[in-house]
Amino acid sequence: MTLSDPQAPAGKLSRPAIEIDNLNKWFGSYHALRDVSLTVGEQEIMVVCGPSGSGKSTLIRCLNHLEEYQEGRICVFGQELARDQKSDRFIHQTMGMVFQNFNLFPHLTVLQNCTLGLTWLRKKTENEARDIAMGLLERVGIEHLADRFPGQLSGGQQQRVAISRSLAMDPKIMLFDEPTSALDPEMVKEVLDVMVKLAETGMTMVCVTHEMQFARQVADRVVFMQDGEIVEVGPPEQVLLHPQWDRTREFLDHIL
Amino acid sequence: MSEQDLKHFVPTPPRLPARNEQNLRHRIQKQCFNNIGNSLLTISVLVLIYYVAKSFLDWAVFNAVWDAATRRECLDISPDGACWAGVIDWFNGLIYGRYPDEEQWRVNSGVVMALLWLLPLMSQRIAYRNSILISWITLYPFLGAYMFLGGTFGQDVGIIHMVFTSLAAGYFILLYLNWVLCAAGQSSLPEMVTPLTSKLFRRGQHMTGFLLVWGFLSILCGVVLAQMHLEPVPVDHWGGLFLTLIIASFAITMSIPVGILLALGRRSKLPVIHWLSMMLIELVRAVPLITVLFMAVTLLPIFLPSGAEPDKLSQVLFAVCLFAGAYMAENIRGGLQAIPDGQYEAAQTLGLGYWLTMGLIILPQAMRLMIPNIMTSFISMLKDTTLVSIIGLFDIMLMARNISNDKNWIGLHTEPLALISILFFVMCYGMSQYSLNLEKRLKAHRS
Ligand SMILES: Nc1ncnc2c1ncn2[C@@H]1O[C@H](COP(=O)(O)OP(=O)(O)OP(=O)(O)O)[C@@H](O)[C@H]1O
Ligand SMILES: [Mg+2]
């Protein structure tokens, strides 16, 4: 497998984690995703970028069954997703997701946010769940805030809680939808640091982000999207430094 | 620029804000007498308050008669004062209806038990607070019904009622034993038997420990209760404030689960459930409570198989529960709409299914948002229950009207109604204050 083949997974392992095959999605009559095909390898870090409205969120939400799609197929570890069925146990056990605006549960403490899934879905006892959650909170550096409520934390801290909450369910794949876009510049770094550390553990990650520094540092491949289509896929040096399409160049000039 | 060239930033030390020292007199002057118009307004309001308060107190306290045998006597002693003697004479009737005098202790202890059941909720340290509430809703009614209805185990108390009454009594005792142990810093009873159960069962040791202790206490209670004999008091002897409270608390507690189910049903994507819930809600909301009550009393027996005609109280409870549930459903739906989609999505990506998402994430937030509205509904339910006197239940309103029909107290209308107003004011104001308090407590940690 060579890097010159842009559609092939460039992960450290060659087994594909996610295979997207000719995906088409419409919002009413609006064609939001057009023949999107992409394969994400196991342990690969994939960064998705593109201008606003290009369908990045839509794509990542289709992977996670938050949106229905009309044509094509998505396979996760070889298992095909049902096209319309909204909640798929396997998918939610395999994938965690981090949202742009955190979506923490405001009525639960930080710790309870993280232990909720463990106690109710994984049938862990209170103490086991607590230990797991505290370990994760420690990893993201906010174990001292475990008893606070989300409303009492800064944006960066909230996003780190959200990451711990997802990790608590022990996913194989993590999806990030612009995790730092709602944050002040000073907080962006603390969240990115956590993501870099996570990438180093060998997690498969699909990140929608405009943090090109992050992309250059950890991404195995970068995807550039425009109008619901994938324009370019390739290793970061190639897409970010020597883009082959004028549209990519234009976009990069804008955000860099 | 090198490090040396930069100026070193030193923050200005913080200081306290200037104290705004104004005494009460100053404030009153500034707020109530700051110009001629306001001064006049303040004075006239004060005069009005004085006039109203004085005439009320004259009637209710200073010129009132507390001790007399008949209304004639009252009028002879003081023609323009309240005749509280009649209300005092009928006090037992107002509170208990026609419940026999010598059995009224059962009503008192039943009500006290209901309150005691909830008391541990005040303690922050007690575990499983939700289970206390759930047990109160599901178990207490059996114990209460046994206390109020009376009867003997095995004779006029049915087998199901016997079992649940014993379970309720057992739970009640377990609750208090646990609380005492918890206050004394000991581990709870179920935890004490855990070493024992862990030898027998591999999984769910805590649960089995709890069930074991509960079961044992329940059997004990059942055996004790089986020895007792409580004089049966049929439902049509219940009345007064006691009956009002039974109907109101039933309406209030049932309105939440019924309301939640109807609200979820109305938002459901399954057309049958959606339309059924919507029709029920709209139908009940569009019709006055009196009509619903009459319908329950006249129509319900027609639909039920003949011979299985329930007593009037059950029919009324059914109607009130439906009515309260429909209103509550709309309150809760309002709360549900205020929850952002992100919460559903976050719950879904964690893998929580529909019921867990609703029960753990959405409803707790929605209910918190709706506390003021829910409490308003509770208060109006409490007041609405006085309507049941119209279909002939001897609630506090009907008892009050009976006073004026008593040959000794003919025409005594105002005083019983005044007493009822005061009673209801105290209860409703208490509920409203409690809801404010609850709101403040829940908001405290969510800035
Ligand atoms: N629920 C929806 N209904 C209708 N159209 C939608 C919906 N969600 C997204 N769209 C449209 O689909 C297109 C892609 O949206 P998407 O949110 O995926 O963009 P994006 O690349 O994530 O943009 P951004 O960088 O602003 O987040 C947009 O033109 C948007 O208007
Ligand atoms: Mg987006």
Automatic annotation (TrEMBL), chain A:
<dbReference type="InterPro" id="IPR027417">
    <property type="entry name" value="P-loop_NTPase"/>
</dbReference>
<dbReference type="GO" id="GO:0015424">
    <property type="term" value="F:ABC-type amino acid transporter activity"/>
</dbReference>
<dbReference type="GO" id="GO:0005524">
    <property type="term" value="F:ATP binding"/>
</dbReference>
<dbReference type="InterPro" id="IPR030679">
    <property type="entry name" value="ABC_ATPase_HisP-typ"/>
</dbReference>
<keyword id="KW-0547">Nucleotide-binding</keyword>
<dbReference type="Pfam" id="PF00005">
    <property type="entry name" value="ABC_tran"/>
</dbReference>
<dbReference type="InterPro" id="IPR050086">
    <property type="entry name" value="MetN_ABC_transporter-like"/>
</dbReference>
<keyword id="KW-0813">Transport</keyword>
<feature type="domain" description="ABC transporter">
    <location>
        <begin position="18"/>
        <end position="252"/>
    </location>
</feature>
<protein>
    <submittedName>
        <fullName>ABC transporter ATP-binding protein</fullName>
    </submittedName>
</protein>
<dbReference type="InterPro" id="IPR017871">
    <property type="entry name" value="ABC_transporter-like_CS"/>
</dbReference>
<dbReference type="InterPro" id="IPR003593">
    <property type="entry name" value="AAA+_ATPase"/>
</dbReference>
<dbReference type="InterPro" id="IPR003439">
    <property type="entry name" value="ABC_transporter-like_ATP-bd"/>
</dbReference>
<comment type="similarity">
    <text>Belongs to the ABC transporter superfamily.</text>
</comment>
<keyword id="KW-0067">ATP-binding</keyword>
<dbReference type="GO" id="GO:0016887">
    <property type="term" value="F:ATP hydrolysis activity"/>
</dbReference>
Automatic annotation (TrEMBL), chain B:
<dbReference type="GO" id="GO:0006865">
    <property type="term" value="P:amino acid transport"/>
</dbReference>
<comment type="similarity">
    <text>Belongs to the binding-protein-dependent transport system permease family. HisMQ subfamily.</text>
</comment>
<dbReference type="InterPro" id="IPR000515">
    <property type="entry name" value="MetI-like"/>
</dbReference>
<feature type="transmembrane region" description="Helical">
    <location>
        <begin position="416"/>
        <end position="436"/>
    </location>
</feature>
<dbReference type="InterPro" id="IPR035906">
    <property type="entry name" value="MetI-like_sf"/>
</dbReference>
<keyword id="KW-0813">Transport</keyword>
<feature type="domain" description="ABC transmembrane type-1">
    <location>
        <begin position="241"/>
        <end position="435"/>
    </location>
</feature>
<feature type="transmembrane region" description="Helical">
    <location>
        <begin position="133"/>
        <end position="153"/>
    </location>
</feature>
<feature type="transmembrane region" description="Helical">
    <location>
        <begin position="32"/>
        <end position="53"/>
    </location>
</feature>
<keyword id="KW-1003">Cell membrane</keyword>
<dbReference type="GO" id="GO:0043190">
    <property type="term" value="C:ATP-binding cassette (ABC) transporter complex"/>
</dbReference>
<feature type="transmembrane region" description="Helical">
    <location>
        <begin position="286"/>
        <end position="304"/>
    </location>
</feature>
<feature type="transmembrane region" description="Helical">
    <location>
        <begin position="346"/>
        <end position="364"/>
    </location>
</feature>
<dbReference type="InterPro" id="IPR010065">
    <property type="entry name" value="AA_ABC_transptr_permease_3TM"/>
</dbReference>
<protein>
    <submittedName>
        <fullName>Polar amino acid ABC transporter permease</fullName>
    </submittedName>
</protein>
<keyword id="KW-1133">Transmembrane helix</keyword>
<feature type="transmembrane region" description="Helical">
    <location>
        <begin position="209"/>
        <end position="230"/>
    </location>
</feature>
<keyword id="KW-0812">Transmembrane</keyword>
<dbReference type="InterPro" id="IPR043429">
    <property type="entry name" value="ArtM/GltK/GlnP/TcyL/YhdX-like"/>
</dbReference>
<keyword id="KW-0472">Membrane</keyword>
<feature type="transmembrane region" description="Helical">
    <location>
        <begin position="242"/>
        <end position="265"/>
    </location>
</feature>
<dbReference type="Pfam" id="PF00528">
    <property type="entry name" value="BPD_transp_1"/>
</dbReference>
